Amino acid sequence: MPESSLVRHLHSSSPECRTSPVRHFSRSLLPQHRNSSMLSTFCTEHNVQDCLSHISQEISSLGFPPVWAVSASPSELSVVAVLNCMYELIQLHRRNIQTLENMEMEQLKSSSEVDFLQLTSTRLKEQLELSRRENAGLLERERQLQLKVKSLQTCLKNEKEEVQKLQNIIASRASQYNHEMKRKEREFNKLKERMNQLLVDKKEKKQAIDVLNSIGRADGKRSLWKTGKTEAKHEGEMYKTLLSDYDTRQRELVLENAELRKVLQQMKKDMVSILSSRKPTLKGDKHKDDCIQADSEEEVFNSSKESVELYCVHAREKLTTSIRLQWRRLKSHVERLDSQASLAQRETRKEEMDRLMLDLQQCKDFIQTQEQLLQQQLSSPCDEETASLLSDCYMLQEKERLREEWGTLEEQRKIFERERKTFTDAAIRLSHERKAFEEDRATWLKHQFLNLSPFADSKTSQMSKSKSSFLISVEPEASAASAPEKLIRSDLDFHTHRSVPLTTQSAGELYPTPCLIPENSLTKPKREAAHVDESSIFCNGNIPAQHKLWKNSEDHCSHSLKREKNSSI
Amino acid sequence: MNFSELFKQSNQLCKVSPDGKYLATCVQYRLVIRDVSTLQILQLYTCLDQITHMEWASDSLFILCAMYKRGLVQVWSLEQPDWHCKIDEGSIGLVSSRWSPDGRHILNTTEFHLRITVWSLCTKAVSYIKYPKACQKGTDFSRDGCYMALAERRDCKDYVSVFVCDDWHLLRHFETETQDLAGLEWSPNGCVLAVWDSCLEYKVLLYSLDGRLLSTYSAYEWSLGVKSVTWSPSSQFLAIGSYDEKVRILNHITWKKIAQFDHPATINNAKAVVYKEVERRTAVGSDDLSLHNITIGTTLFNTQSKYEICPLPVQIPVVKPDPDRANPKIGVSTLAFSSDSRYLATKNDNMASVVWIWDMQKMNLEAVLEQTSAVRCFQWDPRRPRLALCTANTKLYLWSPAGCVSVQVPTEGGFQVQSLSWHGSGDSLILLGKEQLCLCFMDTDQEDKAHLQSQDGKQTESQEMDPVSTSEHHPPCTSKRP
């Protein structure tokens, strides 16, 4: 079994071997060798030489470098070459195995494919068979149906013929029947006649009337003899009734006609009025056409009026034509109106839209201005400043001026500061002096108290005098010292006031009434009169704007008033 | 609504005199004359045999009683009970007898339509009219009683003779363009004569009094044609009912069709009101099943019925006629205009339980009355737009534009209304059973009041005609008038 497997292996690898003739050769050789090796080992102690040569030959034939030279001794086997060769061989072997595996896989795949294809082919064959059978069946059926159709057609033809025949039969029978009927009726009449005769002739049971006594006619008149006169009278009466009937009918018709005529007249009037009112616009539209038609139209209008009154035939014709004409015109007019109506509607809608948009815009503006006003009333001063800056160019100048003012005031403040410093120094000095003086005085008083003597009196008066003089001299100093204090306070006041005018300024701006100006001037120190004036100017400058606003609102009012008027109109 | 007690009658011979005062009934061979208002017997005449036909003379003075089997006619006078007159037609036979419009002549048609004998009661004179045609309606007197139109058949051709009734003078004699003339009828104004062909051919011819052909109308060919023809009382419309289940209305000016009324099996006309009679068995409890009830019988087996307004569409029961038999039960056989020409009532034979009412002003369907059983007879009130109908049961049905009502006739013994006829004043109605009759008195006063009320308060449905509240079992007070 391993042998066979080997053989199979060889066989399976044969396609690859086939590629090189060397391998082919070796293939032919190998089995023998293998077979021999199966019988006895390939290499023994004795035949190493042979083996070597054989292997080297084999190897060289396989295209490897010679492993062993014949000339060399068996022991001189180059190990490196052999190992290389073996390695090569092993590699080769591995590769072969790999390819073998691949091949096997491929073979498996292909075999399965073949199976699948066979399966499909059989299935398809079956299908084909089936459809063939079906086709045959259908063909058969078609043939049958055709046959049927043919038979039916023939049947129909037969039926038609039958019908024709029957119709003919019926017709002939009907005529025969009618003829028979007439014959029978004639016979019947003859019989009736005969019977009548017989019955009249019969004696035993005659027709009879048995009246107790004759009664008078319902109308109480006596019956008259039948004469030509009565006949004429009957005719006359008949025609009379007929005439009266026609008369009543005619009257009814006349009444109805009158009604209809009235309606017609009304309609006509309406039509004419509509059409005539339309005329100018129509002329604008297509005056050419109108000019041509104008005469006829006039005629139509006039004739229609007449024809309503007239009764004869041609008048009727005229009437109908005129009515028809007017009707057509009215129709076209109405159609045009219809088409215009949609357009006009769109236009009016657009107008309305525009108007509304305008209104909306105005309202928005109004709201905005109102908002602005509100903001002006509520907003912080800085905001107000910027707003006023934006609103009026005076503001910039004002600010500049204010800044200058600020600068000067700052300088003044510095000067004051310096002055104050000197004053304080002076005051300190003064206080020092005063302290010294107080001390002096205390000592002096002590001294005086301790030495109460007349000499001392003169001394004290001198001293008091000097003191009073000193006091007088000092007092202005004190006042002077208090004055800077005051000044400082006023300066502080000024500082506080400085912020106030800014707010009042804005307030003054907010309240456009000029009465605020004196108030400002009252609240402000006198030194800021200029500033106050400026603010008043500023206010004045703002007033026109205010006025403008008022005007605007007035305009709004007038607008609204106008609108109201419009609406009322 | 009051009902009288039952009276005997035979052959459904019961007629009110033209002046509306008397009621003549035949009981076997006796003729009984009653006062309509009191129902008292005024006269009683005895004839020679069982009466088969009875007719009042136009002046209400004479009554004609015909005994066709014997070929005898007896005339009685109301004024002179002793006066008598007997006309013997002899062996020539008698099939029809009628008064001439003047009430002084009697026209007897002999057997086989051999001739018409005109007997004068004034002069005892006899005159004959030969060749009368045996057909649906071969003779017709004009409304004013001046003229008589007579269909004749001579030499297999149809002719019409117009006689002056006064002295039987032949005024006109003309051939008609018909295959087989079936009937003729004067227009109510007496100026136009409508002539129609037999059902094999749809053909209606209109002749003037002087014999001129005014118009010919034919709706279709080949299939069965005209079944019934009726003039409207105003002479304005001619209604033609035909086998194709349609009614065609011709106008009186152009004699062209102005409307066509179909009778469909499914009604989905939103303008029409469909009244359906719904029967309800009286709930009889076990304790009610006493001997007393059984003996009374009628009340036990009587069913109450009422009208219900059906939501549209309504499917109407249709009987398919047998195509193999002659005179198939299909098509419009009965047509009747209301006295004011406002409404037209019709009956289609394959929908026997249904009466159709058409509005002639709007030219559309006004109402449909679907009864539980086949309609036997219907007639319009001669004064008001009110239709009375009966279906051979114990009920009387009335329709008016205000509504529809079914009334139980409160009589014992299973009185079934086979036919009915109005009194000329529209105040009372004669209900005829198989061998009995009953008078139904309308409460005209009350109704007039109701009418007034409805006019005042815009109440469309009068008390009586309210289809919902009074449709079932109107409590009728039986006033037995002496």
Automatic annotation (TrEMBL), chain A:
Residues 142-208 form a coiled coil. GO terms for biological process: cell adhesion; intraciliary transport involved in cilium assembly. It is found in: Cell junction, Adherens junction; Cytoplasm, Cytoskeleton, Microtubule organizing center, Centrosome, Centriolar satellite. Residues 1-20 are annotated as: Disordered. InterPro entries: Adhesion_Centrosome_assoc, Afadin/alpha-actinin-bd. GO terms for cellular component: adherens junction; centriolar satellite; ciliary basal body. Keywords: Cell adhesion, Cell junction, Coiled coil, Cytoplasm, Cytoskeleton. Pfam families: ADIP. Belongs to the ADIP family. This is Synovial sarcoma, X breakpoint 2 interacting protein b.
TrEMBL record, chain B:
SUPFAM superfamilies: YVTN repeat-like/Quinoprotein amine dehydrogenase. GO terms for cellular component: microtubule organizing center; MWP complex. Residues 450-482 are annotated as: Disordered. InterPro entries: Centrosome-WD_assoc, Quino_amine_DH_bsu, WD40/YVTN_repeat-like_dom_sf, WD40_rpt. It holds the Pfam family WD40. It comes from the Eukaryota. This is WD repeat containing, antisense to TP73. Residues 452-462 have a biased composition (Polar residues).
